[in-house]
């Protein structure tokens, strides 16, 4: 059962990377859009694209935390005790990002909009970097087993963590740009479609460069994961690369819909390949998945809960995204009846 839970956790990580990653990547393009006049149109596309779904994407993160601490408590304790600094920064970034995104839509003055917009954009870069740095620290063996705490600084500010953190930011930006190309063209904003298409191509090339550099760093600092990527995880890694190249070709040919599907598969393939490469260790090379697992009764109860969650939550997600893609969702917020003018009619 521990293997089944491990697969569920890996798929949840891939889902968060695909949905939440694109959400954070949109913030990166918000950050680089330029001044208030120059960046007004790209930011309008970004707000329309992520407005109805940005809150829902973090359900995957909560799911990941619940599954990890329930199924692998000792590993969860070690990770949290060691990585409390980047986790705290990421949590603060998520809260600040959400609050800033909401407030920017309602404030009146340009200065206030710039402040909230800057907080939203910077947090959108900080969070994926911290998440990537945490993954790199775990892969490079900086988290000890047994519920012990490792070094709170070196554990996430080391060569592997820095590369994986940067890769997470770049991949999120790439995925968001691909989504935004389709979204802009769906609403017949072809100039914005071209704007984000160019950025999708550039970020795809940047992601490839960072990934290649990352392989050399993994070979030197996390040989277990590198060996796994070049052996048991090689088929999924190759599939991810093929999907990434295919998405790039389709972007060059202005085929946004097909590019979006291949981009999703490419990013999900990165997460799946990483998990296969690290297998069977949860904490390389000190704690395996089976050794970290909770008692079988706990795992069975967790699997039942996961099954029920999928039956209840996933249809809601599907409906949300379908309505969003068909532009059938209302704008965020509702009209306050108290704001309506009072009309007095005489008899």
From TrEMBL:
Family assignment? Belongs to the cytochrome ubiquinol oxidase subunit 2 family.
Q: Which Pfam families match?
A: Cyt_bd_oxida_II
Q: Where are the transmembrane segments?
A: 75-96, 116-139, 159-181, 201-220, 232-252, 259-279, 299-323
Q: Give the CC-aspect GO terms.
A: cytochrome complex; plasma membrane
Keyword annotations of the record: Cell membrane, Membrane, Transmembrane, Transmembrane helix
Task: Give the principal location in a single coarse category.
Answer: membrane
Protein name, UniProt field: Cytochrome d ubiquinol oxidase subunit II
Q: Where in the cell is it found?
A: Cell membrane
Q: How does it sit in the membrane?
A: Multi-pass membrane protein
Q: Name one GO biological process term.
A: aerobic electron transport chain
- A GO term for molecular function: oxidoreductase activity, acting on diphenols and related substances as donors, oxygen as acceptor
């Amino acid at each position: 059962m521990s293997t089944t839970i491990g697969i569920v956790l890996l798929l949840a990580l891939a889902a968060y990377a695909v949905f939440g990653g694109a959400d954070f990547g949109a913030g990166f393009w918000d950050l680089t859009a330029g001044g208030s006049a120059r960046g007004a149109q790209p930011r309008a596309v970004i707000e329309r694209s992520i407005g109805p779904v940005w809150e829902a994407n973090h359900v995957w993160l909560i799911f990941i935390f619940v599954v990890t601490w329930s199924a692998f408590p000792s590993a969860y304790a070690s990770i949290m005790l060691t990585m409390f600094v980047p986790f705290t920064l990421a949590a603060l970034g998520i809260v600040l990002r959400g609050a800033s995104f909401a407030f920017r839509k309602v404030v009146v003055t340009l200065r206030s909009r710039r402040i909230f917009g800057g907080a939203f954009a910077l947090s959108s870069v900080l969070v994926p970097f911290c998440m990537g740095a945490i993954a790199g620290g775990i892969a490079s063996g900086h988290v000890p087993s047994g519920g012990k705490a490792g070094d709170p600084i070196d554990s996430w500010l080391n060569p592997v963590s820095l590369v994986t953190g940067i890769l997470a930011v770049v991949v999120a930006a790439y995925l968001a740009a691909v989504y935004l190309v389709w979204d802009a063209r769906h609403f017949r904003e072809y100039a914005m479609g071209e704007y984000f298409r160019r950025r999708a191509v550039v970020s795809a090339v940047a992601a490839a460069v960072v990934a290649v550099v990352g392989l050399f760093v993994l070979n030197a600092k996390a040989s277990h994961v590198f060996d796994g990527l070049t052996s048991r995880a090689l088929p999924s890694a190759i599939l991810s690369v093929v999907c990434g190249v295919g998405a790039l070709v389709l972007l060059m040919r202005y085929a946004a819909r097909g590019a979006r599907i291949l981009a999703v598969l490419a990013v999900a393939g990165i997460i799946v390949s990483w998990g296969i490469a690290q297998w069977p260790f949860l904490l390389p090379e000190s704690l395996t998945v089976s050794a970290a697992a909770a008692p079988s009764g706990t795992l069975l109860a967790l699997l039942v809960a996961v099954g029920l969650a999928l039956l209840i939550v996933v249809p809601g997600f599907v409906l949300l995204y379908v309505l969003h893609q068909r532009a059938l969702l209302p704008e965020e917020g509702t009209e306050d009846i108290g704001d309506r003018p009072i009309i007095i009619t005489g008899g």
